[in-house]
């Protein structure tokens, strides 16, 4: 295959697993400690906000103790060193992860489609604020002072962020790479089919095959800290 110009990379929890952040569906993953429907829906938040805020406060504190790994660093390096620059070509990183490890590794063309732990959203005035502390005590919104901040995370039933930008990047892609995601959650799970429809090459990098594995031209199996730098280099 000739050198692609536009690469879209989708990452999931597997890319941060070796930084010590639990995946969602693996053994010991978050869903086993907390049922998703108890924490990750707007209905759960309406029913038991304290449970949901405690859960996210715990995770927001935990990710600040973690560091990017060799996979995050390799993806940032790929973007930095990619020889074809916008508008002629680009590397776009779309992450489902809500940690900030891609950002801390240096990725800039980054779309966090499921939101971010280190951000709070005021449902009273619809503003977003960098946030590292707890939300359980209902701190006032820095913009309007209402005690209406919630985690800036896309819950089930909510629309993921920046879908227009993702679709625009996908429409230009000649290579789509999926890394460390189970392919269980839509719309991200459908990106490989979009990529196939427009004729892009597709590559999966994962510890084990994802639910959508059959859609990829090629799958390489192994831990992200090995197979991602191997692919980038
Ligand atoms: C390694 C590794 C190592 C491990 N190295 N790899 C029925 C059918 C189809 C769709 C639906 C349906 N019913 C409802 C829906 C829609 C719903 C959905 O998809 N539900 C499914 C359960 C079926 N989706 C939504 O509601 C979304 N919104 C939506 O669709 O809006 C409509 C709309 C869309 C677009 C335009 C207009 C309208 C919203 C989804 C929000 C997802 N949010 C979450 C949780 C946030 C809460 C929190 O963070 O606490 O985001 S869900 C959770 O799953 C999280 C993740 O980002 C997401 C994906 O998980 P991921 O990253 O794949 O992790 P795992 O654990 O599943 O997999 C880990 C992988 O890593 C595995 O493959 C391992 O092999 C691998 N791995 N170690 C390499 N060392």
From TrEMBL:
Keywords: Acyltransferase, Cytoplasm, Metal-binding, NAD, Transferase, Zinc. Its cofactor is Zn(2+). It is an enzyme of class 2 (transferase). The active site is at 114 (proton acceptor). Binds 1 zinc ion per subunit. It catalyses: N(6)-succinyl-L-lysyl-[protein] + NAD(+) + H2O = 2''-O-succinyl-ADP-D-ribose + nicotinamide + L-lysyl-[protein]; N(6)-acetyl-L-lysyl-[protein] + NAD(+) + H2O = 2''-O-acetyl-ADP-D-ribose + nicotinamide + L-lysyl-[protein]. GO terms for molecular function: NAD-dependent protein lysine deacetylase activity. It holds the Pfam family SIR2. Zn(2+) binds at residues 122, 125, 141, 144. It is found in: Cytoplasm. Its EC number is 2.3.1.286. Substrate binds at residues 56, 59. SUPFAM superfamilies: DHS-like NAD/FAD-binding domain. Residues 1-233 form the Deacetylase sirtuin-type domain. NAD(+) binds at residues 12-31, 96-99, 180-182, 206-208, 224. InterPro entries: DHS-like_NAD/FAD-binding_dom, NAD-dep_sirtuin_deacylases, Sirtuin, Sirtuin_cat_small_dom_sf, Sirtuin_class_III, Ssirtuin_cat_dom. NAD-dependent lysine deacetylase and desuccinylase that specifically removes acetyl and succinyl groups on target proteins. Modulates the activities of several proteins which are inactive in their acylated form. PANTHER family: NAD-DEPENDENT PROTEIN DEACYLASE, NAD-DEPENDENT PROTEIN DEACYLASE SIRTUIN-5, MITOCHONDRIAL-RELATED. 2 residues (Tyr-56 and Arg-59) present in a large hydrophobic pocket are probably involved in substrate specificity. They are important for desuccinylation activity, but dispensable for deacetylation activity. Belongs to the sirtuin family. Class III subfamily. This is NAD-dependent protein deacylase. It comes from Novosphingobium pokkalii. The gene is cobB.
